[in-house]
């Protein structure tokens, strides 16, 4: 069926797959194409004429509905789980939208990629993507990520509602801290050397988070921690702080917001080696990189290119004093790394236009 597409994302209807679907929905494609979403919670969605929701359930047997969708679709477009894999029939096309242009080395078990194509944000990421996902270079295109299109749109009513609910306009700065989760149960992803009561870099103790909160208060700034759901269960993140907010996927879902619609509302990113920093460059806001375990990380999981820190356009902070100093400078309105970001941006992004969805659909021949 040439007009049938199956979408998959980790977290129902989210990330790049949802952003591509959203573009299609808002631009009249659904009159022509039939969409099936693989979701963990089909009961949370209502089918419409051309959009159906079927159980994903990758660990058990698929339902009849799911099997029918998978066996008859022309395109399988996914973010995380390629459930079609080697079962694909002649004429079926598997598209991996990817979930980040980063520099982390592949985990020890490199998968075989069955995808016909995958996308990155620039040619710099061809080798890292190939090494990480097991696909050949000729299957990679630097068309960008659909989710980054959200950065170029004006705010919708749900974004405005969040600004109002959190009184974001009352603060000089809205810091977003998105750390890599290092204490994973998955041995391939956990960093054994990492010893922190908070699961955070630099602020290892609960009292250091309290001090950080005080600094933010003095600067009339707020910091939103977008932490991994396992990290959110730590006691330190169950506490209430005056100028720190803990945010998770459930909150976004309640607000009807995609993660990248939320990220757009912040004014400075604090992160480490996560691919979020590549994405955030498009917003042209300051970035603070926590580098306290850079060498350990390099020797533990490692990086896919020699020294990725050359592309980290922003503060490189190694201890609490440097972190606080960077936060204070940003809060005072200084943008020390503006010129460096201008230089690095075109190396990380071949396209700076918010048209990734359109580019991908045109390339695939999915026309209205």
Compact summary:
This protein has 368 residues and is of the alpha/beta class. Helix content is 29%, strand content 15%. The strands form 2 sheets. The protein has a 7-stranded parallel sheet with strand order 3-2-1-4-5-6-7, with helices on both faces.
Percent helix among the residues? 25-40%
How far is the first residue's CA from the last residue's CA? 16 Å
What fraction strand? 5-15%
Q: In angstroms, what is the radius of gyration?
A: 21 Å
Oligomer: single chain
Spans of at least 5 consecutive residues whose pLDDT stays below 50 are: 184-194
Q: Biggest sheet: strands, sense, closure?
A: 7 strands, parallel
Structural class: alpha/beta
Principal-axes geometry comes out as: globular
Order of helices and strands: EHEEHEEEHEHEHEEHHEHEHEHHH
Mean pLDDT: 91
Number of alpha- plus pi-helical segments: 12
Strand order of the largest sheet: 3-2-1-4-5-6-7
State the total count of DSSP E strands: 13
